[in-house]
Design a protein that fits this description.
elongated, 5-stranded mixed beta sheet, 3 helices, about 25% strand, two-stranded parallel sheet, alpha/beta, Beta Polymerase, domain 2
């Protein structure tokens, strides 16, 4: 059997991974001097095990996992994994795609440190992970409504909380905007706004900056 050549550049590493990983589809590119892989969702566990265990990759250090939301797509979520190979001082980014209903296989059996990151992706985006040992919210309250990092989540949220002195506990209430939005004139700052300050002549000539 011919000895496999050790990859020396990111392009060679990407080609090596795509040839040797043994999954149906692997796309790679070099961006910002880092190797980026795109995989099918169901191949993520096999891919992670290969990247960790193969002697020519050695990505034994799990850095993090995050979600990205593109609500206009059918598979609206990117799930992005970052790994590092201390042996070769190389980082890699792995990306898969999923929707709101289809779970992503959990990689906690390969990288136990992914457990809280997968919980965060579920909490913030609603990305499901099959095989996760404890998939529940981690940053918001257990009764929180929705997933706050989705781009269609309202900036005000759905509810607000306050401490009720009579009930002696925190209560949830619908969001209420207690102050009307004000209009500001940002297009002509040298002329000022249409309203005047106290004791100011509102009929002053704003065009030349002098009061008439």
């Amino acid at each position: 059997m011919a000895k496999r050549k050790i990859p020396e550049t990111l392009s060679q590493l990407g080609k090596y991974i795509s040839d040797e990983m043994g999954v149906d589809s692997v796309d790679f590119e070099i961006s910002y001097e880092e190797l980026n892989l795109s995989l099918q969702r169901d191949d993520i566990v096999k891919a992670m095990r290969f990247l960790r265990d193969d002697t020519h990759t050695g990505f034994i250090s799990f850095i993090d996992l995050c979600g990205v939301d593109y609500p206009g797509r059918d598979e609206r979520f990117d799930v992005v994994y970052h790994l590092m190979s201390p042996k070769y001082n190389t980082r890699i980014r792995v990306r898969i795609y999923t929707d709101e209903q289809t779970p992503v296989p959990s990689i906690t059996g390969i990288f136990p440190g992914a457990e809280w990151y997968e919980r965060e992706a579920w909490d913030m985006y609603g990305i499901l992970f099959s095989g996760h040992p404890d998939l529940r919210r981690i940053l918001t309250d257990y009764g929180f409504d929705g997933h706050p990092l989705r781009k269609d989540f309202p900036l005000t949220g759905y509810v607000e909380v306050r401490y009720d002195d009579e009930l002696k506990r925190v209560v949830y209430e619908p969001v209420e905007l207690r102050q009307e939005f004000r209009n500001f004139d940002f297009l002509s700052p040298w002329e000022g706004t249409d309203y005047g300050l106290p004791n100011e002549d509102v009929g002053a000539d704003k065009g030349n900056g002098k009061n008439g």
